Each structure stands twice: as structure tokens, then as C-alpha cells.
Amino acid sequence: MSSAAPRTAGQDHLWSVDEHLEDILATVRPLEPIELQLLDAQGCVLVDDITVPLSLPPFDNSSMDGYAVRVADVAGASEEYPAVLEVVGDVAAGQAQLLQVGPGQAARIMTGAPLPPGAETVVPVEWTDGGLGEGPVTGMRARSLAPESASGHVHVYRPAEARAHVRAKGSDVRAGDRALEAGTVLGPPQIALLAAIGRGTVRVRPRPRVVVMSTGSELVQPDEQLRDGQIYDSNSFALTAAARDAGAIAYRVGAVADDAEILRSTIDDQLVRADLMVTTGGVSVGAYDVVKEALESVADEDEAGSGIDFRKLAMQPGKPQGFGSIGPDHTPLLALPGNPVSSYVSFELFVRPAIRTLMGLKDVHRPRTTARLTADKALTSPKGRRQFLRASHADGTVRPVGGAGSHLVAALAHADALIVVPEDTESVEPGAEVEVVLLG
Asked: Per-residue pLDDT averaged across 195-210, rounded?
């Protein structure tokens, strides 16, 4: 999953967003392929090209409920002068032994049933009297209710061209065609195709297991009573949902108190089910930011090549960051800041690409575009920092949502984009073209 520990620099070094992301993606490796049952493979990335072993459909079949006939027998048929044909029986979907349709004959045929020998076309039942002799009908009577309809005679009121209402063998895909390319993400349509060509299992890179853990003694779980100085834990819910949205199998760990030993023990316990670990909170410079202490002590006992590097990034929000690998399997770990907006922006920029790299996807980043800024006043940005502002994007324009504070979680619910203000830009005027990261 991971290679060497991240590169390090002096304590005061300010890393760029691009340097930090580059280190993460150089450390994370795609998961090893496994064979999975089709439904278990949903959302996974296909490892091999899939070749079609048999044509679809595997035989000529009817696209309508009606009658299988010879073209010559219904040529010139009309309501005034219908063609009258002998009904020799039924052809149902899944039927192995087929009737022979000879001159002057018809076989009642159901949608999906094989075209019987001798038949050249299918006349929809609505073009016939359904064997009742009472003019055009709107449908067939159920065989269980009227078995006699499979015999007798049928009046056909319209002619039909050769192969009309017939799905040709191989008209969907032919044997030997490539059904799916390696790198395809398996959604419902792809799984349907695999099932249709007889594949019950498939080799994929599995969805990564991501453990999300928030830290802070002030955090309380939703539905619990708040006491003085406490807040509800929203980060772990936001990041777990974001990990699932990125394609992972995500596990949320309830908030861990500001105690290095408890945090260390919890991390050790969670490693067994993690392909990637994400923590939020406790990475700044406060006296109670214990994530550094706990992760450094875990890394000290790990094998060579493991380690967590804590950094300051030239970005806003999300300046304090940590990443590296821990445990005997060198499990990648990303330590995010605790402010809700900082945490979520950091996830989108760093964790989501890591998850999608583990999945084996080629395109791991959110799509980006440019848009015209609509705002009541110029946007300001600190010099030397790349700023990411929550925004609403539509019709080629983008508008900031909420203020710049990294604690303003309510605005996240109304944002579908991030405005990117480069490091060398301190002010952006309304109407200017800006870079936009699309979040959904």
C-alpha cells in the first residue's frame, strides 16, 4: 500500500499544496487485485479487459408479443383482406424445442422467445385478431386462461417486412468483442453486462477500507446531551460520508479524548481493518494537540520506513497537516486539522485523491473549471497562501458561500464548489475569471 516515509524539512518550512499532494500520491499504492462476486464488486475498478465469450443475444428473438410468420404469407394483408394463417402452437421465452413454421402457418410468439425455424418475421399481436375472429386486439390472452388460443387460425391485418420485430443474434455484442476495459468502475450497467455474458465473478481492485477518527475531549456524539464547553462531533460524520462518496468502505470511530495513550491504543486497534487511516484534530501547536504525540510514539515502534511527518502548508484553510504510514503493514495515515471547514477542504484536496489512488483509478482528482466570480465586493486572500473558498457554481458563474472562518460548518451544506485563489493573488474583483474545484 505504501512505500517509504515522507520526506521531511525544517520545522519552519512552509510546504506548498502541490508538494504535499505529490508526497501523498508517491506514498500510496493501488491495492492488490482480488476476485469478487459481481455484487461485491460494485464500485470497484476492473483489473483486466473482459472479452465476450458468447454473442448477445445468443439467438434471433422476438422484440414483441405476436406471431412468427413467413413474409410471403402476410404480403398485402389488410383489414379488408386479412391473411388467415393456421396457428401451430406457442413459442415462449426459454423454450428449447422450437416449432417449425411452414407455408400458411404462424406460431404465437412471446417477447424474448427464439424465432422458430421457417419464420422470417414477427407480426405484433395488435396487427391481428388474436385468434378470436373479432377484429384487431390489444393483447394476448394468458395461456392458462385460454389454451385454445395456441391453435386454430389467426387473422393478420398488416404485412411485415423480413426480420421486422426481430432482435438479431449478436446485435448487442458479438463473441470475441471487448465488453469492458481494464480501469472501468463497475456500476449497475457494467454488472448487468457481466452477468449477461455469464461472468459470476470478476477480478478487481477492492474498495479501500478507510477508518475515520476524530479527536477532542470537547466532542459529544449526536443525540447526547451537551454540557458547558462541549460541541457535537460533526467531522467524523462528514469525513466518513466523504470517504464513502469517494468510493471507499468507511468506518467511523467515535471521538477520542485528548489523551495520547488512549489515542495510541485506539489507532493500534483500528489498524487491522484499515487500508487508510484519517484523523481529524490535534495537529496544531496547542498544549492539548495530542495527535502528534500519539502518532510519533506509534511510529517510533514501527518498522523502518514508517513515520508521520507534521507540516505547515501554504494554504488557507488547512495549514497544519500530517501524513505518513504506521504499523507493520505501513498503513497510510493522513492527519487533518480539526476545524470543520479545514478538515473538509483537506479531505477533498488530499484524502480523496489517496482513496482513488488505492482504488486504482487513473483520474483521482475532482474536476476543475473556470467561472466568472459574482460577489458583492472583492475577495481578499493572504499573500503566499493558496486559498480555497466555499462557493456555489452554476451557469459559468461562481459565488462565495459563507464567510472565511474555518469553523463555519453551516456554509458547507450550501456549497458545491471551491474557489481557488493562487498564492500570488491578494485580491480578486467581481467579474474576474477564477479557478473552481467542482465538489459534486
From this structure: 96
Write out the H or E segment, with its range, that includes residue 277.
strand 276-280
Q: What is the spatial distance between Cα 283 and Cα 291, in angstroms, rounded to a whole number?
A: 6
d(CA 333, CA 353): 13
Q: What is the pLDDT of residues 251-275, one digit of tens each?
A: 999 888 888 888 888 989 999 999 9
| Angstrom distance (rounded) from CA 237 to CA 214 | 9
64, three cell numbers: 414483441
| H helical segments located in 302-389 | 340-346, 352-358
Nearest to 113 by CA among 45, 179, 163, 65: 65
Q: What is the pLDDT of residue 406?
A: 47
| DSSP letter, residue 349 | I
Half-sphere exposure of 53 (CA within 13 A, CB side): 6
260, containing H or E segment: helix 260-270
Residue 325 has pLDDT above 70, yes or no: yes
* Burial tier of 57 (Cβ tally within 10 Å: 0-12, 13-18, 19+): middle
Q: What is the pTM of this model?
A: 0.83
